[in-house]
Amino acid sequence: MNYRKAMKRNVTASVLLCIVCPLQGALAQSFPTKPVRFVVSFAPGGSTDTVARVLATSLSERWRQQVVVDNRGGGGTIIATEITSRALPDGHTFLIVDPSFAINPGLISKLPYDPFRDFEAVTVVASVPLMLAVNPAVPAKSVAELIALARAKPGALSYASSGIGGSSHMSAEILKAMTGITMVHVPYKGGGPAAIDLIAGQVTMTFQGIPALLPHVQAGRLRALAVTSAKRSAAVPETPTVAESGLPGYEVISWQGIFTPAGVPKQIVLKLQTDLSEVANLPNVKSRLAAVGAEPVGSTPQQFAAYLKSQIETYARVIRAADIRPE
């Protein structure tokens, strides 16, 4: 009797699977069926917003549906993230974030969402290395010399960041953790004010996006020491990486990742990943991404989910070790 019941359940499940799979495939083929909302976790301006707008234009052309960029800045990306987590899981709302998505779980004890339960990882669509720059008056012309200077004068050097818990902050904290040096953190409300004070000599150094610092480096107002990626950036090929400049293993990337609300059909998630990856690698899109120091990535949902897990764990360790607290 039990065997017959089990067989009946298996046959029923197989029939349902045969029905559901073609339906999901057809659903993905017809997607999108209406305008799409592309939620951006920052105010207009900056690399993440620029990446989103470049992608939105090309996706609109590909899908023949309007892709509306919806900027929901504030709250350290939490506002945009919570809005997306509550959206209808049909694939017509998706979110672009930066590493704050991986930093916040270690920084904030009670988030209004769970990064794994409430979201489907789609892809890391682009990556943006940061640049380490110092004021020209600083007597260090390489990362190795900067580390030696910090060791010789514990606590005398300072670093500016664009805010507590951001990529610029974490880049310096990982440098401190790997070298044992001590420096004073001076947080600002954005990279612009941080760069201004660095140029004025109020702080020693900063980690910021390449496009934000490069004009100052080219004008001689700042000195670039390194980039934070594992390999040199095509935007500044003459600038070495931190790893090759005396700190093997150092790598910090400001990535742009795409998420949908949990529950979006897998076939739609895969279509989003495929379309986003293909669009990001179009020659005209690649050139526009390069203008903000971004390079296309195009990871699979599985790769992105695994990478997110490792990023959350890494940043949580750094936050605990440095006893970083939210503003």
Q: Could you give a quick summary of the protein structure above?
A:
With 327 residues, the protein is α/β, with parallel strands linked by helices.
Please, could you describe this protein's structure?
- This protein has about 325 residues and is α/β, with parallel strands linked by helices.
- Strands 1, 2, 3, 4, 5, 6, 7, 8, 9 and 10 form a ten-stranded mixed sheet that branches.
- The protein is about 45% helix and about 20% strand.
Q: Supply the helix-strand structural class.
A: alpha/beta
User: Assembly state here?
Assistant: single chain
Q: Largest sheet at a glance?
A: 10 strands, mixed
Mean pLDDT: 90
The Cα radius of gyration reads 22 Å
Please provide the count of β strands.
10
Q: Kindly report how far apart the N and C termini lie.
A: 64 Å
Query: Which percent bin holds the helix content?
Result: 40-55%
Listing every helix as H and every strand as E from the N terminus to the C terminus, the arrangement reads HEHEHEHEHEHEHEHEEHHEH
**Total of helices:** 11
What proportion strand? 15-25%
Q: Stretches where pLDDT falls below 50 for ≥5 residues?
A: 1-8
